[in-house]
Amino acid sequence: MAHHVEKIRRVFRWGKILLPLKKLQYYPPKFIIRDPVYQGVKRAFKEGHEVAIIVFNIQNLRQVYEQLGEHYYQQFVVALKVQFQRTILNNIPQQDVITLHDYYSDGLTLFIKVGHDRNSVSEIEALMLNVLEESNKNLNIEFPMAKPDFVSGYMFIEKKHYSIQEAVYKAHQQALAMAEKRVQSEFNDMLYTVSKIVSQRNIYLLAQPIIDVATKEVKAWEMLTRGPKGTFLESPLRLFSVARQTGMLYDLERIVLEKTLEQIHTTGCSQDVFINFTPLTLGNQRFIKDVRKLMEKYKNIPPRQITIEITERDSIEGIEYFIYNIKILRNLGFRVAVDDTGAGYASLNTISSIMPDIIKIDRSVIQDIDKNSVKESMLKGLLLVANETGSLVVAEGIESEEEALVLSRNQVHLAQGYYFAKPDTLKKGLASS
């Protein structure tokens, strides 16, 4: 049996696919694809991107082989890779794909460039779902006898690692563990680590000021989460991706709320404070009860000082308590903001559903807006949406004076970004400025 399983794996590993390509290229098993992977990762890091590894594994590889037989199985492998390639390129900009191949596993591994913010986590999960649904649907038409049982997981490659090769290997093993959730695997280690972070409340918060564009005065703060200093999970991308895949996301975001209230109390900050929450957390049945309990503890902090910022590009459809909880939060006095407006369908759909108090315009709209008239037209369109909903507008990711000037002439009053100030700790001196 072991001989047959290894034979299956050799067959599966016969084809190596590099994306993007105009056509598929196959190489014999002796061809090692390590260099294109590592070179692509290095290049992405140099360009300022993060790199995510997404694993699509077939749990029942032996059964699929037995169902099809060797001849049809080889055709199935080719069709599988072609279908994955087609689906991936339909869902991701071609320039963001580094490579797709069978990186030492019973399936396919995708390397892609992603942004630095937490939104990348929900985008990756949506991508995984789309790829699996579309590929399974089309494969079932071609090979109705085959019933591959796919599992998927992802991880971000650590930039600070001393070796790109070691960093890629480590991230791939972690992504595999997330996909398979194996007993006594690295999945359990990651679950233990995140549980420990939550139980010890071992996170720290940075505060990025939200600025009045005309006066340059600080009007509010957005709280940003970091994991334990000097660890693999200090990066918010890795911290929230692991928390999400291990079922600890709600607990982590509850700790963020608690520590934010602590800092407001300690510093005496009287300005508005934005706190990020995923739709999954906002739609949790426990959320309102936990919020009430924390606000009872910090009676000196009025709910109107806190803006609940709906972050990440998850769809709110199907989240049972989401709309109900938002209504309760508003009745309690909290304000609601929608993040990433202009970045995709999910944020626009959320706006129409909840009519937010604040709309935050995504960095993708703002970047180089002074050089792109289409982007300025997009900004004007979003301002019309904000006017229709009665929402205040905050522009995110301002990095130059020229971008700030475009905001001024379009009467966008509030903005945040490195041009104004980098994130820092919420201090007494800053809070009273």
TrEMBL record:
Position of the signal peptide: none
Matches recorded under SUPFAM superfamilies: EAL domain-like
Alphabetized CDD domains for the sequence: EAL
A Pfam short name: EAL
Superkingdom: Bacteria
Domain (EAL): residue spans on this chain: 187-433
Record's protein name: EAL domain-containing protein
Species in which this protein is naturally found: Robertmurraya mangrovi
